[in-house]
Design a protein that fits this description.
This protein has helices spanning 128-131, 139-161, 165-179, 217-226, 246-249, 283-334, 341-355, 360-371, 382-385, 393-399, 402-411, 420-425, 446-460, 472-481, 489-500, 503-514, and strands spanning 2-10, 17-19, 23-27, 34-35, 46-51, 54-59, 66-68, 71-73, 75-77, 83-86, 89-97, 108-110, 121-124, 184-191, 196-204, 214-216, 228-233, 252-262, 265-275, 516-519, 526-529, 538-540, 547-549. By secondary structure, the protein is of the alpha+beta class. A hairpin with a 2-residue loop joins strand 18 and strand 19 (265-275).
Length: 550
Amino acid sequence: MQEALLVATSGLPPGRKFRVGRRACVGRAPGNDILLPSPHVSRRHAVIEKRGEQFALTDLGSRNGTRVNGQLVNSRLLRHGDRISLEEFGFDFLLEESPRPDKPCSTRIVHLPDSEHSVAAEIDVSPTIPRLFEGAGASEQLEAFRRTYRILVKAGEAFGLERDLSSLFGKILDYVFEVVPAHRGVIFLSDEHSADFHPVAEKVRDSLPDKKIEVSRTLLQKVADGKKAILTTNAVTDLRFRSSQSIPLHDIRSAMCSPMLHDGELVGIVYLDTVGIVERFDERGLQLLAAISGPAAIAVENARYLAELELKSRQLEKSYYDTLKVVVSSLEVRDYYTIGHGRRVALFARIIAEEMGWTEEQLKLVEMGALIHDLGKIGIEDAILRKEKKLTDAEMEQMQLHPEIGARIVSDVDFLKPLVPFLLYHQEHYDGTGYPYGLKGEEIPGEGRLLAVADAFDAMTSDRPYRKAMAAEQALRIITEESGRQFDPRGVEAFLRAWNKGRITEAMLSSAEEVKTVECPYCSSKIEIHPDSSDNYPLRCTQCHRRARL
C-alpha cells in the first residue's frame, strides 16, 4: 500500500515531513492538519485526499491560489514528485510503500514528586574520551578501547554529514546501540520555551516486546540540572531510586542518561536502559555514551543551523524572484502586447528542462532566466516595441541589441550572473543564423538553446502589434519543422514529449487563468485584470491613462 507524504522545501524547515493519510487540510487557521502560519495563505487553503488508489489536491477557493509544478490548479490528481506551492510554502509530494505505518514516538515522561536521589555513578561529559583509555593495561583491552574509539570517530563523521534531523536521531541511536548493550533508547530534546523535554526518537531491540517506554522525570531533570552523565545500576533493588516508580515497575535493571551539550548549553538528553537481569550497564558504558553525546550535540545544532540557513536562503531567493517579477511587470507596461509573456515562457521552459532531466538547482535558474529573458528591451525605444508594421533594417538592428543590454544589466549583480546565458543567447539559432553572435549548434550554451524553443512557442501563440496569435497546433508544426535549423533537436524532442503528455496545453490554460487582459475602449491597448477585480472595479490603462470598468 502506498502512503502519501508532503516534504517541506520552503517556508518551513526543509525536510519536515507531513503524512497525508486519507485526507489532509492545509491552511493558516488552527484545526488544519498542516498549519501554514502566513497571512498570504487562506484560512482553509487546500485539501489533499485519497480517491481510490490515487491522491487529489483541491484548492478551496483560496485568495492567491495553489500551484502544482508552477501551474495554478483548481483540482488535479497528484503524481509522485509533484511540487506543490502555497505562496511562500513549498512541498514535494511523495508516494512510498508502507507495509506497516511508522509509529510516532511513544515514549512518555512520568511525572513524579520531587525528591533527592544519589546515583551509582556520574561523570562530566567533556573529558570522557581520554577516560576510555584509563586502566587499560592488557593489550587486548587496549585494542578493544581503540576499536571503540574508532567507532566514536566514525560516529562523529557520520553525524556531521547528516542534515535531516529525523535521520540524524536514528543514526545516533544506532551508533549508541553498537557500543553499549542497551535494550531501549530514547533521544529527548530540550524545549527552549518551556524548559521541558520532548522525545523525538526511540529504538528498541527486536527481541523485546513492543511496549511503551516510560522515563522518570526525576532522572532527566537531574541530568539537565547537573549537566552530567548519570548511571543507575540494578535499579529494581536500588533504594536511592525507590520513589521513581517508573523504574522498578518496568523491570529496568540499569539506566543511564547523558546530556548533549553544545557550548555549555543543553541541547537534549540520550536515555538508555536494560530490561531484565541479563545485561547491566557499567561506568565504562557511561563513558562511551557521554563520549558519543558530544559529537551528537554538535551534529544536532549544525543540522538545526543548516535548516534555518536554508530556510532563510529560500526566503531570500523568493524575495529576489518577486523583485524580478516586479521588474518584468514594469517592462510589460511599456510593451503591453507582451503582458504575461515572461511568466508563460518560464512555465514552458521549466517543463522542457524537466523533460530533459535538468537538476532542481538548474530548474530554479531556468525559471528566473526565462522570466527576465527580455529584460534588455528596457533599452529599446517604445516606438520600435509597439510598431505595428514590419521593422526597418535600422530598427531591427536596434531591436537585436536587447540580448546584450539585458546581459550587461544582470552581469553586475552576483546573484543574477548565472542568468546571463538565458538573456544573451535565447535569440541564437541552431544553424548559426541568429543573433547577437551568430553562434551555431553546440557553440550556443544549453540555456539559450532551451529557451529559444519556449520563447518562440509563446511568441507564435500570442498577439503581437503586427499580427494575431496563431493556433497552438500550427506553432507546434513550425517548431517541429525548424528542428535542426532554428532550434536544437533535443529541445524540440523534449517539447514534443511534454506536448504529447498534455503538459504544454495545461500550462497554457493555467497561465490564461492567471493573467487576464481586456482591451482598453479608448486606445485598444491591453489592460491586465487583477485576480480580485470586481465587475465595478475601475481599471487604469497604462498607455492612455484613462479609467474604465469591467
